[in-house]
């Protein structure tokens, strides 16, 4: 099964949870109540987040997308240790949606953020269920 923490981090874009003050141990929960189902169903919204994550720079990103791009390396390396439980639950929802409904987008995200498959291998067992 093709899985990885790459999408766990991608969820952060949908939640807008990537902002973290240096003194905090968790990402902000400011956007935890964003309706993920609405974003996943809305092609226009979904494409904007995807475009942000796949671009070479953050010029295509909203403010939360820019923060996400800054947080991705930390979240990958540290197994989303700064994510809240709600953010982790949302991540599973987004992973399942992308694997089941948008496999090409899932592959693009992995190619961008995990080209060597390091994180995919590290988190495959945990995210395969």
From TrEMBL:
What SUPFAM superfamilies does its record include?
Answer: Chemosensory protein Csp2 (SSF100910)
Q: Hey, what's the signal peptide range on this chain?
A: 1-20
What keywords sit in the KW lines? Signal
Give the protein's recorded name: Chemosensory protein
Q: Which organism is it from?
A: Gryllus longicercus
């Amino acid at each position: 099964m093709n899985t990885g923490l790459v999408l766990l981090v991608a969820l952060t874009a949908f939640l807008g949870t990537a902002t973290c003050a240096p003194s905090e141990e968790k990402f902000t929960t400011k956007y935890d109540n964003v309706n993920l189902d609405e974003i996943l169903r809305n092609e226009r919204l979904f494409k904007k987040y995807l475009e942000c994550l796949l671009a070479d720079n953050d010029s295509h990103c909203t403010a939360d997308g820019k923060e996400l791009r800054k947080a991705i390396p930390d979240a990958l390396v540290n197994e989303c240790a700064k994510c809240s439980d709600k953010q982790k639950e949302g991540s599973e929802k987004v992973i399942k949606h992308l694997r089941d409904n948008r496999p090409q987008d899932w592959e693009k995200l992995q190619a961008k953020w995990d080209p060597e498959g390091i994180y995919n291998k590290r988190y495959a067992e945990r995210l395969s269920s």
